[in-house]
Amino acid sequence: MVMNMIPDLIGQWRLVTTRSHDEDGKTMRLPYGPEPMGTLIFFANGRMMASLCDGRSVIPEAELPREFVAYGGNYTFDGDRLSTRVDFTSDLPRMGTDQVRGVKYSDGLLTLLPPPRSFEGRTQYRELVWEKTQ
Q1: Which secondary structure element, helix H or strand E, spans residue 71, and what is its range?
Q2: Which of 39, 42, 83, 117 is disulfide-compatible with 9, CB 3.0–4.6 A?
């Protein structure tokens, strides 16, 4: 029986879609908007880098500022958890932290699950879905 077989992470991944919900399962605003853009690269030397943003050419004023983050560092992966020790970032509070993500793999797509966070007065659970390009 093959369960949650994860392919070799090394290579480049493209952000396909995002989802989010609150603690009651109610849908929340999409991370990085309805047209998310992102690149995730894992290198054979144990380094990674990620860049994600709202890819719309025009953002409604009510949704400004545009959501964006870039970070990277050394990573470890045990098949269920991805942990990155951040040593460069656009979001200074991440510097020097371990960014830990749950990992699921299904139908050729890699889903990263950041820890819950407070967002718009509720607890938000995010899912970032990636497709390998190289």
Answers
A1: strand 68-77
A2: 42
